[in-house]
Write a structure and sequence with these properties.
By secondary structure, the chain is α+β, with helices and mostly antiparallel strands. 38% of the residues lie in helices and 12% in strands.
């Protein structure tokens, strides 16, 4: 050895002394070494959001695309392929390949070229405990000592499992489960020998050696791994010859929040944070399974219904669609927009729109609670001077109806009648009913003024869904919710939703409301929904100047809301540009058609249920005959509902009713 002769006796002695000191120091360090806690990122795994079946995935959210799996759920060849690719002495070495380390260190020091010499256990230490790549010699030596310690204290399969769940495979996938999904669209437990060999083979440079980037190198590594599996006795040589290269699926680097699902994921995450106290960081690193209330077929029906709309609408038209189970408050579908990445406002839960005539049932409830019967009559001519308004109140198309009862006034959404009803029962009571039904107290524009019955308030679509669900449930309010339960990484239930309900209205009152609202569909402004051929209650709504258009319909099993509105460049609400062959967009035009298209599928598997029988409560109030002030000739009836007149800024006035009680027949 020439280099020993060059340094001489004293030089050799110094080297031996330093080596001895280093060796003894390493022994002392090793004896005192404690295995540290795993690196946070190594254990971070994404949380999975599911549809209501708990199986179908909506999306996964997390700082790392990782889902930890038990090695016992994997076929043996998954681990065997990794051993053949990364460390063929894994089951016999003490956790460190000293000869390989020395070769790598010498080459690194004397040639400047880095060379790998790490065992699987050493790589496991680096990724699972250190959390970053170590490049200096002292760091590498400390990692080697820790690998020795871990090899003594942990089973080889435990090491292999943790490594498989930690290592990066490219395509944003951390761990074998995410890799199986990204490369082959399947679970890790379903990987074939050939697929496992490909994934193990590209580990040293997963992004560069991904077949889509370097097919030749990927195939070379695949062959290398399979040959190693044969040499180690894991794979029969004849079987190996029959294997074909496993081409991965196309890689799509889609943002999980893209499309309509993004609104559901964001709303579900917000609910978990608010209701169950988890932080966003906990959700993105904790590996939770979050089961939503979204029913996949109903969600699909909602999206297809929106897609069925005519395409000649304004590009700034917004559509909100939501369905709710009235028995629980569970949100079964939600269309908050076309693409969350384009517009980060949920049309269902964040946007608001004037309710228009969908507000009239609240006045109807107030009238029934005040003792009126549905057979009570009012003058339905148009226009009419009504106290509290600075301008005459008009019906849609200025249509006059003469003396009609509340059933017909509801079916045809007669403004002049409902303004009188609200006057008689008191606007404050209309607001009270709306709140009891489910509208929050801070709903924009929810005020006790004479025009509130015409829907001057601007609720969120989800709030109107909750309110009408109170009608569908027979008078019981259920708070709407989107997440049914949260499971921990071990599969046990960590949090479960508790239904929040309260009695809001007498079922006898609601039975009458249901009856009146079925006439809206039977022959009134929402008659297009009658095409479904089953009992349906509902209400159309159109705001002043056609700035919003609604249809809310329900059966005893499901409530659906469709709302359209249009936002200008400056953020202000503007008139909905007519489209789809309609001269103007009202609740009885596009919204009821979208609703009907959706419900045709959503109701297909549900039995036909009847609404409760009428209760015939209250007295029929028949006003004394009086001429209508300045009625206009009646034009041809329109199937569309009536828009609301502009409300008066005048102070709230609640005049005494001028009615003559008459016994109900």
């Amino acid at each position: 050895m020439r280099w020993l002769r060059r340094i001489g006796f004293w030089g050799t002695l110094v080297i031996l002394t330093l080596t001895t000191i280093g060796f003894l120091g390493s022994i002392i360090v090793y004896s005192r070494l404690e295995i540290p806690a795993p690196d946070d990122f190594a254990q971070a795994q994404s949380s999975t959001f599911y549809y209501s079946d708990g199986v179908t995935v909506i999306g996964r959210l997390g700082v790392a695309n990782r889902e930890i799996v038990d090695i016992e759920t994997l076929d043996p060849w998954v681990g065997q392929a990794l051993v053949a690719a990364e460390d063929r002495t894994f089951y016999t070495n003490p956790g460190v390949d000293f000869a390989g380390m020395v070769r790598a260190m010498i080459k690194t020091v004397f040639t400047g070229h880095k060379q790998g010499g790490s065992t699987i256990t050493q790589q496991y230490v680096e990724r699972y405990y250190v959390g970053e790549t170590t490049t200096d010699l002292i760091g590498k030596w400390n990692e080697a000592l820790l690998a020795l310690k871990i090899d003594k204290e942990q089973d080889k399969d435990e090491i292999l499992e943790n490594y498989l769940n930690t290592v990066y495979f490219g395509r944003g996938a951390y761990g074998i489960q995410a890799a199986a999904r990204e490369y082959y669209g399947k679970e890790a437990s379903e990987l074939t020998v050939s697929e496992a060999a490909l994934l193990a083979g590209i580990l040293p440079a997963p992004s560069a050696w991904d077949p889509r980037n370097n097919h030749d190198q990927a195939e070379f590594r695949w062959n290398y791994v399979l040959d190693g599996m044969v040499s180690l006795g894991y794979l029969d040589a004849a079987d190996r010859l029959r294997l074909d290269f496993p081409e991965p699926i196309e890689y799509k680097n889609d943002d999980v929040f893209a499309g309509t699902d993004g609104y559901i994921l964001r709303a579900a995450m917000d609910e978990v944070i608010e209701e169950f106290g988890l932080t966003e960081e906990a959700i993105e690193t904790g590996g939770y399974s979050i089961v939503t209330t979204i029913d996949a077929p109903t969600q699909d029906a909602a999206e297809r219904a929106v897609a069925s709309m005519a395409t000649d609408h304004s590009p700034n038209l917004q559509v909100a669609v939501v369905t709710v189970n009235p028995a629980t408050g569970a949100i079964t579908s939600m269309y908050g927009g076309a693409d969350y990445l384009v517009r980060q406002r949920n049309a269902v839960t964040q946007d608001i729109a004037q309710a228009g005539s969908t507000f009239k049932p609240f006045a109807l409830v107030a009238a029934l609670e005040a003792g009126m019967a549905l057979e009570s009559e009012y003058n339905g001519d148009s226009p009419q001077e009504i106290e509290g308004f600075t301008r005459p109140v008009r019906n849609f198309a200025n249509q006059s109806f003469g003396q009609i009862d509340l059933i017909e006034a509801t079916a045809n959404s007669v403004n002049t009648v409902y303004v009188q009803v609200a006057r008689d029962v008191g606007p404050v009571n209309v607001v009270d009913v709306a709140k009891r039904a489910g509208l929050p107290e801070d709903t924009a524009g929810l005020e006790s003024n004479p025009a509130n019955v015409l829907g001057t308030a601007s609720p969120h679509p989800i709030d109107m869904a909750a309110a009408y669900a109170t009608f569908a449930s027979g008078g019981v309010y259920h708070e709407p919710f989107l997440v049914s339960e949260v499971l921990g990484p071990d599969g046990t239930v960590a949090f479960s939703h508790v239904v929040d309900s309260r009695f809001a209205f007498n079922p006898s009152v609601i039975a009458e409301v249901d009856f009146a609202l079925t006439k809206v569909v039977a022959y009134g402004s929402g008659k297009y929904a009658n095409n479904l051929g089953r009992p349906i209650a509902g209400k159309t709504g159109t705001s002043t100047d056609n700035k919003s258009a609604w249809f809310i319909g329900y059966t005893p099993q499901i409530v659906g809301v469709v709302a359209l509105y249009q936002v200008g460049e400056d953020g202000s609400v503007e008139e909905i540009t007519p489209f789809g062959g309609f001269r103007q967009i009202t609740g009885g035009s596009i919204p009821v058609r979208v609703w009907t298209t959706m419900m045709e599928s959503a109701l297909a598997g549900l039995p036909v249920e009847q609404f409760p029988s009428r209760s015939y409560i209250g007295e029929a109030i028949i006003p004394s005959p009086s001429p209508s002030p300045s009625p206009s000739p009646s034009p041809s009836p329109s199937p569309s509902p009536s828009p609301s007149p502009s409300p008066s800024p005048s102070p709230v006035v609640t005049p005494s009713p001028v009615v003559t009680p008459v016994a109900s027949p």
